[in-house]
């Protein structure tokens, strides 16, 4: 390891050296499958660990563990204030291991250690503590009945919220810890039990967090982790008859497959799917704000962010100025391994994804698109794609329509804001969007007309636990976060009493 890279903690080295199994019933368990999954370091392309490749029998064991924990009410039966205290303690334990988790995250996913510390761990702690408080805010209503009643009859009616049961959480590889905990935390706060399946390429942090959950006092069987492929492990989990809800974050194609499977059993689903997110820059926008905000909004985590701005529509008077500004910014980005604190652009998460992103750029090159590239990664190792601006791309190119999920951003000249709005909405996706202007009246008009679940003004990718988040159109169904977050993890029961 070079001196410029962060030294691995001894606890991280010990964790990597383990023979990782599944986490079921509060402990590591061996898989019934003899197959193993290899975890690769995206910065070097070298193996760093192996984990179990769970089969359907393993999944059944995990789900039944969660089911028993739910039925005997070892967690759901606690007072809400008890659950809140334990979840807050869980956050404290995670915080005590923050550097360990950040290093594991960077090693398996490739992102900057700075991002792992600030987003994966620090932001996760904010969500954990926010969600802990929701455990004591689950409420119902007292209601009057309106139907004609027999003479002298009296009725009292009310609603109550009850945990939905066993939840299956399917987690992507871009923010494994943070998005994983976005599924774990509402389940715990509501009184559910959960089985989490991380991506097969990034399973390590959630396996470690599950151990910390038991240390914090989460009862055995309430928080389980199965590692394996989507084809067998994921399918077995989402189709299991004792799973009452599926929470999935990932591609639209996989989300549709899960929705079809869930429809057969009427399983509840929350789907946060793909995005081809636009940013509209009007001619009165502050160029410095635009460049600073959209460099972060576009290239955070190498563009591997569902909410990232990948299409930037710029009114003609500002176009040349901003293209020059973005070019200077992109070419100034330093590229290197995530464990280097000075590197601003890091490898993509896997060889397969690196090849996929490179294919988008190769097609653009073949069609003579104007590409402005930043610095390349280290020669001969790792899964690097140089940050790239595509200027006024041909609408027939795949990268104008499809989610690239990499450090590739389209810069498009428009004559006016109405043209930008039309082009922004001409997509099957509707996750996020942003508008950049100093005119508040214009800004509010665009927030009404942009077809996206979240619209920002003069910023991009500001996601907060108190703001509901989810997509329109092909970007998903349901909402996470916000004061009503737990509604999606509870059943509403009506009670009516004659007395």
Defining traits:
alpha/beta, Aldehyde Dehydrogenase, Chain A, domain 1, 2 domains, seven-stranded mixed sheet, six-stranded mixed sheet, globular
Structure description:
This protein has 499 residues and is α/β, with parallel strands linked by helices. Helices cover 39% and strands 21% of the residues.
Structure summarized in a few sentences:
With 499 residues, the chain is of the alpha/beta class. It is built from 15 helices and 22 strands. It folds into 2 domains: 285 residues, Aldehyde Dehydrogenase, Chain A, domain 1; 189 residues, Aldehyde Dehydrogenase, Chain A, domain 2 (3-Layer(aba) Sandwich).
Task: Please describe the topology of this protein.
Blueprint: H1 10-17, E1 22-24, E2 27-29, E3 36-41, E4 46-52, H2 56-71, H3 80-96, H4 98-109, H5 113-134, E5 142-143, E6 155-163, E7 166-170, H6 176-190, E8 193-197, H7 204-216, E9 223-225, H8 230-238, E10 243-249, H9 252-265, E11 268-272, E12 277-281, H10 287-299, E13 309-315, H11 316-331, H12 351-366, E14 370-373, E15 388-391, H13 398-401, E16 408-414, H14 417-425, E17 429-430, E18 432-436, H15 440-449, E19 454-457, E20 472-473, E21 476-477, E22 490-498
Parallel strand pairs: 7-8, 7-10, 8-9, 10-11, 12-13, 12-18, 13-16, 15-16, 18-19
Antiparallel strand pairs: 1-2, 3-4, 5-6, 6-22, 11-21, 14-15, 17-20
């Amino acid at each position: 390891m070079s001196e410029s890279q962060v030294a691995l903690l001894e606890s991280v080295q010990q964790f990597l050296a383990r023979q990782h199994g599944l986490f079921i019933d509060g402990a590591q368990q061996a898989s019934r499958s003899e197959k193993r999954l290899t975890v690769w370091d995206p910065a070097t392309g070298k193996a760093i660990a192996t984990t179990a490749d769970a089969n359907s029998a393993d999944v059944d064991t995990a789900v039944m563990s969660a089911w028993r924990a739910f039925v005997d009410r070892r967690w759901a039966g606690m007072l809400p204030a008890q659950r809140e205290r334990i979840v807050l303690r869980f956050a404290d334990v995670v915080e005590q291991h923050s550097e360990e988790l950040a290093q594991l995250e960077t090693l398996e996913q490739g992102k900057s250690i700075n991002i792992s510390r600030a987003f994966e761990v620090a932001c996760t702690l904010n969500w954990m503590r926010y969600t802990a408080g929701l455990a004591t805010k689950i409420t119902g209503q007292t209601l009057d009945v309106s139907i004609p009643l027999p003479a002298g009859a009296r009725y009292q009616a009310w609603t109550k919220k009850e945990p939905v049961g066993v939840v299956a959480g399917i987690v992507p590889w871009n923010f494994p810890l943070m998005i994983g905990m976005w599924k774990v935390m509402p389940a715990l706060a509501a009184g559910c039990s959960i089985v989490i399946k991380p991506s097969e390429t990034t399973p390590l942090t959630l396996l470690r967090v599950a151990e910390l959950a038991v240390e914090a006092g989460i009862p055995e069987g309430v928080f389980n982790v199965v590692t394996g492929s989507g084809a067998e492990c994921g399918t077995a989990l989402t189709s299991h008859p004792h799973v009452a809800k599926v929470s999935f974050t990932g591609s639209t194609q996989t989300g549709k497959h899960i929705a079809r499977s869930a429809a057969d059993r009427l399983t509840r689903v929350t789907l946060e799917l793909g995005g081809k997110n636009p940013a509209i820059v009007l001619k009165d926008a502050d160029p410095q704000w635009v460049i600073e905000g959209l460099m972060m909004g576009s290239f955070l985590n190498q563009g591997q962010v569902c909410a990232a701005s990948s299409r930037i529509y710029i009114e003609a008077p500002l176009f040349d100025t901003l293209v020059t500004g973005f070019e200077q910014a992109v070419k100034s980005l330093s590229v290197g391994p995530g464990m280097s604190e000075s590197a601003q652009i890091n490898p993509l998460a896997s060889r397969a994804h690196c090849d996929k992103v490179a294919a988008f750029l190769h097609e653009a090159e073949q069609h003579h698109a104007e590409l402005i590239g930043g610095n390349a990664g280290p020669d001969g190792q790792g899964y690097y794609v140089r940050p790239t601006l595509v200027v006024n791309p041909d609408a027939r190119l795949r990268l104008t329509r499809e989610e690239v999920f990499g450090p590739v951003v389209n810069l498009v000249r428009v004559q006016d804001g109405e043209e930008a709005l039309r082009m922004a909405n001409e997509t099957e996706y509707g996750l996020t969007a942003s508008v950049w202007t100093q005119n508040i009246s214009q800004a509010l008009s665009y927030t009404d007309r942009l077809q996206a679940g979240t619209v920002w003004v003069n910023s991009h990718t500001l996601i907060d636990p108190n703001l509901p988040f989810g997509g329109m159109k092909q970007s998903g169904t349901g909402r996470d976060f916000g004061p009503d977050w737990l509604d999606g993890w509870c059943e509403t029961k009506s009670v009516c009493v004659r007395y």
